[in-house]
């Protein structure tokens, strides 16, 4: 048994763990990184990267079907599903070197390719190595949650961890779960030639603004995706090569089943009790991301129990590094964290939705500034007029923004910046956006906030009248 010491021990080489390892090692800390599976974690291998690559393949296929309005004769694409998966694999392989063991060893990180488990409050065992560390970071991420639906153990099903390995196109894909993963995979597969049925126990895209979600759901239904809401899966069975899902609204059958119900944090094998690390579904941490019961242990990303996004894990890395390396007080916040569902159209959100803003600040305190895509010249010229932006404003400052439409994920960054830095709506209104771009949508939304204050204000009109009458 080898015993080593480190300043910082990181369990998990996903987004959060890699960011901490790179930063801490390059700033002089002695760092050990444990990874028992694949470098890059879920995002690179099973999540963000492959899903966006498959969506890109579907987008190309859809473009061939929808060229008529541009004067291009539409054709039915010949989709090679296996070749689309080759594209997914090439994308992963292109990014892999950035997250590779060799790169991090070049930073001076000792990388141990074993799973880790606590054996004391300051010690973790990984294979034949015991590491004692001043600070330990749990960055184990999460995996797909498969609910105990009767019969699920008797059928062949896919999750995000193996759907990208499937080489033969599903004839009819049944997806249980109408959240972001389910919707993205539904659109990718309908565009690549599969029939798709989504079964959701509550409301599809239920965590998003209902008005914005309706735009996405209408688009998917228009492309042929069958979306069944308020239909809790009661039983799953398989016979004659077909998988059937029984719900209160009927039984739905298909050739393949994808479980996209949610995520489960990977903490079960860490032996957290031996480290005196309190947990429930995730590690219990304070705003500083430290364990509430063992101040030598931190948790970041999904392991910290908050928003489950790759960019949140990266953000957490900065919070933790300031605390661990420099001894500075450092706390996370969530009001400025954006998220995106990468369907077509995209749906992006930062801060409070309209309903949440009215609930938190009071109905009369919230002003909603809105602008529609069909008034943006670039959207009109490209035939992408479906969508809108609405910004929730309190005392002149944005507290949330919802965007649904083309490039919503790119546009939301302006509002994340504004909220993160406490900027007023006037800062966005003062921005000059190049014409014609989708970026004008943000500026026009800010303008929509000020328009009533200027154009419907009697005082303004009196001042203008006075100036025009008496100013030489």
From TrEMBL:
Organism domain of life: Bacteria
Cofactor (UniProt): FAD
A molecular function (GO) term: NAD(P)H dehydrogenase (quinone) activity
Record InterPro entries: FAD/NAD-bd_sf (IPR036188), FAD/NAD-binding_dom (IPR023753), FAD/NAD-linked_Rdtase_dimer_sf (IPR016156), Pyr_nuc-diS_OxRdtase (IPR001100), Pyr_nucl-diS_OxRdtase_dimer (IPR004099), Pyr_OxRdtase_I_AS (IPR012999)
Keyword Cytoplasm: no
Keyword Disulfide bond attached: yes
Keywords: Disulfide bond, FAD, Flavoprotein, NAD, NADP, Nucleotide-binding, Oxidoreductase, Redox-active center
Residues of the FAD/NAD(P)-binding domain: 7-316
Cofactor: how bound: Binds 1 FAD per subunit.
Any Pfam family hit: Pyr_redox_2
Binding site residues for FAD: 52, 116, 140-142, 302
Identification of the protein by name: Mercuric reductase
Gene, per the UniProt record: merA
């Amino acid at each position: 048994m080898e015993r080593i010491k480190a300043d910082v021990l990181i369990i998990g080489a996903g987004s959060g763990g890699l960011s901490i390892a790179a930063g801490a090692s390059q700033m002089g800390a002695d760092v050990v990184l444990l990874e028992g599976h694949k470098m890059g974690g879920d995002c690179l291998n099973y999540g963000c990267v492959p899903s966006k690559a498959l969506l890109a393949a579907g987008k190309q296929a859809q473009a061939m079907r929808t060229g008529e309005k541009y004067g291009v004769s539409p054709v039915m694409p010949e989709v090679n599903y296996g070749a689309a998966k080759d594209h997914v694999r090439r994308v992963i392989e292109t990014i892999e070197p950035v997250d590779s063991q060799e790169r991090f060893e070049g930073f001076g990180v000792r990388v141990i390719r074993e799973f880790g488990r606590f054996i004391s409050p300051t010690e973790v065992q990984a294979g034949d190595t015991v590491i004692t560390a001043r600070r330990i970071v749990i960055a184990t991420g999460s995996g797909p949650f498969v609910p105990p639906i009767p019969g699920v153990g008797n059928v062949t099903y896919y999750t995000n961890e193996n759907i990208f390995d499937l080489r033969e196109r599903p004839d009819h894909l049944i997806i249980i779960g109408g959240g972001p993963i389910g919707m993205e995979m539904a659109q990718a597969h309908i565009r690549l030639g599969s029939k798709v049925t989504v079964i959701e126990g509550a409301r599809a895209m239920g965590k998003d603004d209902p008005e914005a979600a309706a735009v996405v759901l209408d688009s998917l239904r228009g492309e042929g995706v069958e979306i069944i809401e308020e239909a809790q899966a009661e039983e799953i069975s398989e016979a004659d090569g077909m998988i059937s899902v029984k719900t209160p609204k009927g039984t739905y059958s298909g050739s393949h089943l994808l479980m996209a119900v949610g995520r489960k944090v990977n903490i079960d094998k860490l032996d957290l009790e031996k480290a005196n690390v309190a947990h429930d579904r995730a590690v219990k941490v304070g705003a500083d991301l430290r364990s509430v019961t063992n101040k030598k242990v931190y948790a970041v990303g999904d392991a910290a129990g908050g928003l489950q996004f790759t960019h949140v894990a990266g953000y957490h890395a900065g919070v933790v590094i300031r605390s661990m390396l420099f001894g500075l007080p450092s706390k996370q916040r969530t009001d400025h964290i954006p998220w995106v569902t990468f369907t077509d159209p995209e749906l992006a959100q930062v801060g409070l939705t309209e309903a949440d803003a009215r609930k938190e600040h009071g109905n009369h305190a919230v002003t909603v500034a809105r602008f529609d895509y069909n008034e943006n010249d670039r959207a009109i010229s490209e035939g992408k007029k479906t969508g809108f932006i609405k910004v929730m404003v309190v005392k002149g400052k944005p507290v949330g923004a919802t965007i649904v439409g083309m490039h919503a994920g790119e546009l939301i960054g302006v509002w994340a910046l504004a909220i993160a830095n406490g900027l007023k709506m006037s800062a966005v209104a003062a921005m000059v956006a190049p014409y014609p771009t989708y970026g004008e949508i943000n500026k026009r939304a800010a303008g929509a906030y000020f328009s009533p204050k200027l154009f419907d204000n009697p005082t303004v009109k009196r001042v203008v009248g006075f100036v025009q009458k008496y100013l030489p």
